[in-house]
Amino acid sequence: MNTRDEASKAPAQPIPLSFGRTLVIAPHPDDEVLGAGGTIARLAAEGERVFVAIVTEGRPPAFSAESVAKVRSEANQAHALLGVEETFWLGFEAVGLDLAGHSAVNSSLSGLARSLSPETSLLPFPGDIHRDHQLTFLSALVASRPHQESFPLRILAYETLSETNWNAPYLNARLHTEHLRRHFASSRQP
Questions:
Q1: Cis peptide before 61, with omega less than 30 degrees from 0?
Q2: Among 14, 109, 137, 189, whose Cα sits 20 to 30 Å from the Cα of 155?
Q3: Radius of gyration of the chain (CA)
Q4: Longest alpha-carbon distance in the chain
Q5: Could you tell me the pTM of the whole model?
Q6: Residue 180's domain is classified under what CATH number?
Q7: How far apart are CA 67 and CA 28, in angstroms?
Q8: Is 10 part of a structural domain of the chain?
């Protein structure tokens, strides 16, 4: 066998992403892991510097102090495994970002973007039905405006599927339920 044949059978090596310093902005802890965890891990493995900003956190009475501490601990562990260099917790109220002054969220993300000067920003998909996701996207765009001395050259969006989208008008749950019913009925027959 010649070297040409051997080379053609070798597994293809992925092309490096070359995102440069990357800021991943997540409305809630876990959105960044579910939506961009593979990308975060790959960037870190390629030697890129990756930072995460978590915009909201749970607050009583909807979330106990113990559950908030547990979620933060789990997120920090996940970030360490993925290779995140630093996580920033902005502390706005979860499932209540629309109650925060939009300028406060803009200011917080803008200050972070100025201090980190990311070349790439990964943002939640703007078409997500969850209001916290939509507002995070909009504030992150404000923080990324190109009129500044430093701004991201790439703005990419990640999708985080959640139960929030279950009631979206474009989903037909009855069709899906009927498909599942037929599938399980046929799998039980001998």
A1: yes
A2: 14
A3: 21
A4: 69
A5: 0.81
A6: 3.40.50.10320
A7: 14
A8: no
